[in-house]
Amino acid sequence: MNSLDLFKYIKDALVNKQLPLEQKIRLLEFSKMWFESDLYPKDVDIMELYLTSELDKPDKLDKLDDIKNVSQSTAYQKAIEDLEQAMSKATERVGPKPPLKISNDKNYQESNPSIDNIRNGSITDKDKKRIRDGLVSDLRTLAALAFTSISASDMCKKDHSTSRSMLHCANMSTQISNYVVDQILDSEDIDKAKQLYQFFVGVASKCIKKNDYFSAMNILSALSNFAVAKLKNTEKGGFQIDTKIKDKFKKSEDTLSNIGSYKNLRDELSKKKEIPPIPPVIMYSKDLTFAKDGNSSVDKTSNEFKQARLEVLEKIVKEAHHLQKPLDPSKAIWKTDINDIIKQRKTKEEDNKKKIFDEITQKGEISPEKIEESVSKRIESERDKSNDAKAVKMRGQ
């Protein structure tokens, strides 16, 4: 559907449908906002979703304005004209855009100081800082790639959690967390594991200073992993965290806390920042779930709920788009090998997933629609067992 087809669809849908004048004008104004933003043209279907949501369940007849009266309204006609003008400008503004790609250039060599040097303690503070800053930069690139991939239409789908871009973000979050967990648990020595744990607390703190809340959240999740937590149990051979590191972890944890619906984080995002912030997608995922489901005491069939839902979704989409707009990870140069490691791990995971899938399919014990879920659970279970075994071995039990 091109812009002209979309405009005709919007106009015809609103003209030929009985809806309150106020509601029609609001939908026209939202459509205008969409044409004026960078959401156009990549999310054409968002307008269809919004309109379908409103038009499929019109308000009660006694609350409707007569179609003829609506069409003669000066405000309505102005809204139509403003939308047409915005559409025209958008068509002129937008040309074909190449897909977003990251340069394959890298600013590191295999011989450079690496995380292995931190693990072994054979590194100067200056080199440790250089590795930390390089990793923070690369994590921000990964976070920006994931966050900017989220489309407005995916956010507004009935089940947003299974949409392509939201799944991509969830997968990247998991990959970053797994990377941190693996680096710590692959140390094979409790003292080396401590060095890596404390290093990643510093990385998370630096990510927050660089307004990359996406990566910081995933690192903290990894540091709270059950197997990693076992390494901190001093009564069973674990390591003792330095007080300074504990305080740094607590400060990061407070910033990203979900208490009050991420109040502290939302306060940070609302501030004007020199470096564009990247929020954790889980925050938006919970917002979207609440916007679509409300709470148990809400009548989901009521016109009030439908209108409130639309307004909340519009607010979320606008905010996410506002944060996405200044991000441009396409010119990034990799400074560490984290992207290579994640790619290699994903390839191995896909091979393992296919192997387990074929094994389960051949047995025929599970219905086809539940095979995917069963594969995921088995992979997660195998990973948990492996991580637990590594932690127990390091503690000498």
Order of helices and strands: HHHHHHHHHHHHHHHHHH
Total E-strand runs: 0
Which structural class should the secondary elements be placed in? mainly alpha
The pLDDT mean sits at 79
User: Over all CA atoms, what is the radius of gyration?
Assistant: 25 Å
Count helical runs: 18
Q: What is the CATH homology-level superfamily of the largest domain?
A: Ras guanine-nucleotide exchange factors catalytic domain
Low-confidence stretches: 59-65, 95-100
Question: Under the CATH scheme, which class of the largest domain?
Answer: Mainly Alpha
Main β sheet profile? none
Helix content: 55-70%
CATH architecture descriptor text of the largest domain: Orthogonal Bundle
Percent of residues in beta strands: under 5%
Structural write-up:
With 397 residues, the protein is mainly α. The protein folds into two domains: 91 residues, no CATH class; 231 residues, Son of Sevenless (SoS) protein, Chain S, domain 2 (Orthogonal Bundle), CATH 1.10.840. The protein is built from 18 helices and no strands.
Write the topology of this structure.
Layout: H1 3-15, H2 21-36, H3 45-55, H4 67-71, H5 74-93, H6 115-120, H7 125-148, H8 152-156, H9 164-185, H10 190-209, H11 213-223, H12 226-230, H13 243-255, H14 263-270, H15 281-293, H16 303-324, H17 338-363, H18 368-394
Helix pairs in contact: 1-3, 1-5, 2-5, 7-9, 7-10, 9-10, 9-11, 10-11, 10-13, 15-16, 17-18
